[in-house]
Amino acid sequence: MKPEEIERMRDEALAAFAAAGDLDALQEAKVAHTGGTSPLALANREIGALPPHAKAAAGKLVGQARGAVNKAFGARQAELEAERDARVLVEEAVDVTLPYDRVPAGARHPLTTMMERVADVFVSMGYEIAEGPEVEAEWFNFDALNFTPDHPARQMQDTFFVEGPTGDHGESGVVLRTHTSPVQARAMLDREPPVYVVCPGRVFRTDELDATHTPVFHQIELLAVDEGLTMADLKGTLDHMVQSLFGADMKTRLRPNYFPFTEPSAEMDMLCYVCKGESVGNPDRPCRTCSSEGWIELGGCGMVNPRVLVACGVDPEKYSGFAFGFGIERMLMFRHNVEDMRDMVEGDVRFTRPFGMEI
Ligand code: FA5
């Protein structure tokens, strides 16, 4: 075993390590120069076969060479690892100071999803969605609904009048519809009874924008015209609606009221879905949602006035109908504890975001 040969093996190993350009190449060089079949491993194995006097010198020679090779491997490995880490840091760097460049996912406004949720209750019962124009003939908005020209009820809803061509009905003026009830009249004129329609939509009144009013708001209206419909059908439908939206133990109550287009007419209230009426006369359990009244006012309803049926071509001797309508903003307010209606119209995402990303 010649020292020059051992030195050559050592130097070849060192040169191979130095030439390795990355950690994979270094690993290959390691196997070739220190693995079980490498020249130095074979030389090590030969020591056993040497005469006793030569063993110590040969052992020292091979041991030193293997030590130098292992040391060189460790040093080159550390070098290549440091290079790799530095490269990864540059290649995969994230500049956390860059502006946020993803367009945030959009979602529909809570008023829209609320209105659809209510409409869906009726669609699942077989009602059809009906729509009408927001710029409406005065005839549909008032006359067809039994508001006579000088009827004081016309003043109940302060109206935006629109200049322009008259609407579909002769001399009638044009208004921004003050409620969704004109869609009732359109639905009856467009269809043969039985009629089961739900009419969601935007309506307009000259109300000032404040915590509980907005000049542009949303209503949803229901109309059923069929043979033999009674107030009991109306009440059952209202109860089903509040149970679908607020829970199985909910109910509604009716209080006498007046609308020109329904007779009899009623104001409809629903049981307060928070306290279920338990806050009434119970100062230990006050309820903010219903102001401890036990009921929440929802909107108007009644049996379709036979005069309206006649105006819309429906025979009141054969058919009867019920209708109801209410404001979506008010429902969103008490369902989600919104204190100020202005938040719904100002378009600030800090208001809409907590409602989630329902689309
Ligand atoms: C009507 O508009 C009737 N058309 C409802 C109706 C339909 C009665 C069918 C009978 C049969 P009223 O004017 O009360 O009714 O308005 C209904 C609801 O609209 C109110 O209960 C309220 O929730 C909502 N509302 C009225 N004015 C505003 C406003 N300025 N801002 C927000 N919501 C309003």
UniProtKB/TrEMBL annotation:
Q: Where does Mg(2+) bind?
A: 263
Cellular component (GO) terms are:
cytoplasm
Q: Which CDD domains match?
A: PheRS_alpha_core
Q: Which domain of life is it from?
A: Bacteria
Q: What are the residue boundaries of the Aminoacyl-transfer RNA synthetases class-II family profile domain, all occurrences included?
A: 112-354
Cofactor binding mode and count: Binds 2 magnesium ions per tetramer.
This enzyme's EC code(s): 6.1.1.20
- Top-level class of the enzyme under EC nomenclature: ligase
Q: State where the protein is found.
A: Cytoplasm
Q: Provide a GO biological process annotation.
A: phenylalanyl-tRNA aminoacylation
Where in this chain does the entry annotate a coiled-coil region?
A: none
Do you know which InterPro entries this protein is assigned to?
aa-tRNA-synth_II, aa-tRNA-synth_II/BPL/LPL, Phe-tRNA-synth_IIc_asu, Phe-tRNA_ligase_II_N, Phe_tRNA_ligase_alpha1_bac, Phenylalanyl-tRNA_Synthase, tRNA-bd_arm
PANTHER family recorded for this chain? PHENYLALANINE--TRNA LIGASE, MITOCHONDRIAL, PHENYLALANYL-TRNA SYNTHETASE
Q: Which NCBIfam families match?
A: pheS
Q: What is this protein called?
A: Phenylalanine--tRNA ligase alpha subunit
Which source organism does the UniProt entry give?
Streptomyces olivochromogenes
Tell me what gene encodes this.
Answer: pheS
